[in-house]
Amino acid sequence: MKNADTAMYHAKSQGRNNYQFFKKEMHSNAYERLALENDLRLAIERNEFILYYQPQIEATSGMVVGVEALVRWQHPERGLIMPDTFIPVAEESGLIIQMGTIIVETACRQLAAWMAEGMSPLRITVNLSTKQFRQSTLPDTVADIIARTGIEARLLELEIRETAAMEHPEETIRQLKRLNEMRVQLSIDNFGTGYSSLGNLIRFPVSRLKIDRSFVSKIEMYADDSAIVAATISLAHTLGKEVIAEGVETEAQSTFLIHQKCDHMQGHFFSIPLEADKAAEFIWNNQLYHETAP
């Protein structure tokens, strides 16, 4: 029974809708996953997470208008761990909810610190997991964080994955409306990778759509992908929503997006994700204006 249970978890890790036969090496994988989950619980208690910030660029000016907060785990023994390693474990174990709250608060505190130094207002974006977004207490949690950190609600943007938004549309609309009433900015992440209903998309009170990097990366190679990107930008603007393209890595991709009137861009062509101090330096050198520090 224990071996069958191990095989079941392995099947889940492969994306579900499949079956797996038990193999001896699965034991070591299971032990490693359990050890990672236990370490993750300690990491939450000790707040071992670090946020990196990737600048978001306004297409028309080339200036920084926002940053996306991206989490890393500073493990005391294993060093810096990338999210692909621990986020799936956090989601399966339910730890993602506590971790998500820490990430939102850390991002908001960093924005407050930057603005206290005289930096001009900019949007800070945090990606929500599906479980985190489905929590009925999410709006209250976000409101509490905004109150404690002192930032303006309009400067916080929460990203919801397209698949999560479309899974339960009515529930999604209720949750988005509660957040929108607080003046928090909302966007749909990974747009184009799921199966969006145009009717639901019109009803969602979101201000931005983020074009998935899988389309952006193929702009130069495949006409179909460039057509999808162009059509997405046109559709979003027709619906009164802004567009941001992620994963921009070449000048040709940037030029195409500017020509298609994409609003914002993000990717290694402009900057890799940066630690807070380096991100601040990049922002200071690439903002349109600055306010005088109080």
Protein architecture, described:
- The chain is an alpha/beta fold and 294 residues long.
- It has 2 domains: 1-15 and 23-46, no CATH class; 50-285, EAL domain (TIM Barrel, Alpha-Beta Barrel).
- Helices cover 50% and strands 19% of the residues.
- The protein has 13 helices and 9 strands.
- It has helices spanning 2-13, 25-46, 83-93, 96-116, 130-134, 138-149, 162-167, 169-181, 198-203, 213-216, 223-238, 251-259, 276-285, and strands spanning 49-58, 64-75, 79-81, 123-128, 156-161, 185-191, 208-211, 242-246, 264-266.
- Strands 1-2-4-5-6-7-8-9 form an 8-stranded mixed β-barrel, surrounded by 5 helices.
- The longest helix has 22 residues, at 25-46.
- The radius of gyration is 20 Å and the shape is globular.
- 33% of the residues are buried.
- Residues 289-294 have low confidence and may be disordered.
Give a summary of the structure in a few sentences:
The chain is an alpha/beta fold and 294 residues long. The protein is built from 13 helices and 9 strands. The longest helix has 22 residues, at 25-46.
Write the layout of secondary structure elements.
Elements: H1 2-13, H2 25-46, E1 49-58, E2 64-75, E3 79-81, H3 83-93, H4 96-116, E4 123-128, H5 130-134, H6 138-149, E5 156-161, H7 162-167, H8 169-181, E6 185-191, H9 198-203, E7 208-211, H10 213-216, H11 223-238, E8 242-246, H12 251-259, E9 264-266, H13 276-285
Parallel strand pairs: 2-4, 4-5, 5-6, 6-7, 7-8, 8-9
Antiparallel strand pairs: 1-2, 1-9, 2-3
Helix pairs in contact: 2-3, 4-6
